[in-house]
Amino acid sequence: MAPIIGVTPCRSLPDYLESVRRAGGDPRVVDPAQEKAAEVVGSIDGLLLTGGTDVDPTLYGDAPRAMLLEVNRERDDFEIAMVHAARTAKRPVFGICRGLQIVNVALGGTLIQDIPSEMPGSLEHSVPTPQNSIAHEIWVTKGSLLYSLMQEKLAEGDACNVNSRHHQSIKRVAAGFEVTATAPDGVIEAIECGRGSFCLGVQWHPENFWRTGEFRPLFEGFVEACQKR
Ligand code: MN
User: Which domains does the chain show, CATH number per domain?
Assistant: First the structure.
């Protein structure tokens, strides 16, 4: 039986669903309007948090700044509850883009609300189209879960190219997590929980590469952890 992967709804689901399927998982879109987090987690083997709108800064003790874009508090609250429920139930968690940010905020971290205005001189992290266009390099920490999953891609060193469609990023990392990839300008591009169950977040969009499969090992590692849980 393929493990059931709960996927949070977003505007561009098909690539997430296809990435999960190609890694051997059975994706199931969860509906925040109809389901309670603890019940949802009881029916899935792992949680995939998808991309989307900005996280409400009041959730990490910050006042909204001028460059903050659309927020969806209902989605924030549901996904934060899902992160807590998944961690309690020891379900693997994989957060992508906003998903990484939600994991970080749910577990006590903070965010940069807008990279261009808060980090002058930073690289361009908003390269919307095509979705798999390469925006910048990342440097991956040797010895991390992320490094082991991307071993093949990192064969010639610790750097690789990624796409980028975010204007927010992690400021203070949640306790118990470590940064395992950064962009050359210092923007955090991945975090993971060093111990215990699988909990990985990436700031780029590996789901947009399912046709070429270059980030499939990330989904395979996640699905495998869900199978074993
Ligand atoms: Mn980026």
Answer: 4-228 (3.40.50.880)
